[in-house]
Structures are given as C-alpha cells and as structure tokens.
Amino acid sequence: MRRHNELRAKHVNTPDLKWSDELATYAKNWAEKCNVDPLEHSNGNKYAESIANYPSLKSAIAGFYSEVSDIDWSNIQYSQGGHFINMIYRCVRVDPCSRGRSEDNGS
C-alpha cells in the first residue's frame, strides 16, 4: 500500500488509502474464484474493481499507473484509463488488495 499511496500523492486531493479487512476479504473471495481467461468482474457488488492479470502486485501497480498516459486531462473519461482513475480517485479511501491463483501462471 506504501507504493500505491506514493503514486496517489502525486495528484491533488488524494489522501492516503487505509486498509480495510472487510474489503480485503471480499477481494480475496472473488480473486479465488475469478476466471483468468477472460478476466471477469463480479456482478451486482457495491465495490469498484480493478482486475488484471499481472505476475506480481508490484507490476500490477505499475501497470495500472501507466494508464496515466491514456488520460485526456481536458475531458477525463473512465474508459481512457479506468485502473489509473481507480488508483487516484479522491473518493477512494481504502485498498482492498488481493490476488488469486491461476493454474497456468501460478499467480
């Protein structure tokens, strides 16, 4: 979470995230049953999800943040860089990070 907060700090009005055991449990449960190919979001939940297939948490954070180059700052659209927007959106206050394991790549 330290690296996530370092990247958030580059943007105005983005306070540090705080850990949530409740959201971490929710994320872990979905990650353990989520299909890898194709990746699937859960249906009908009340939480935003950033789902991707990266070999490590460090590479996922870097990959999500790299979407900053997709943003048209004069007309921000979620479809331009949704993972990046989820990372820095000022209303986000907790980090429910988890990862599942796939049979083909072990992560």
From TrEMBL:
Gene3D superfamilies: CAP (3.40.33.10). It comes from the Eukaryota. Residues 2-104 form the SCP domain. Pfam families: CAP. SUPFAM superfamilies: PR-1-like. InterPro entries: CAP_dom (IPR014044), CAP_sf (IPR035940), CRISP-related (IPR001283). This is SCP domain-containing protein. It comes from Pseudomicrostroma glucosiphilum.
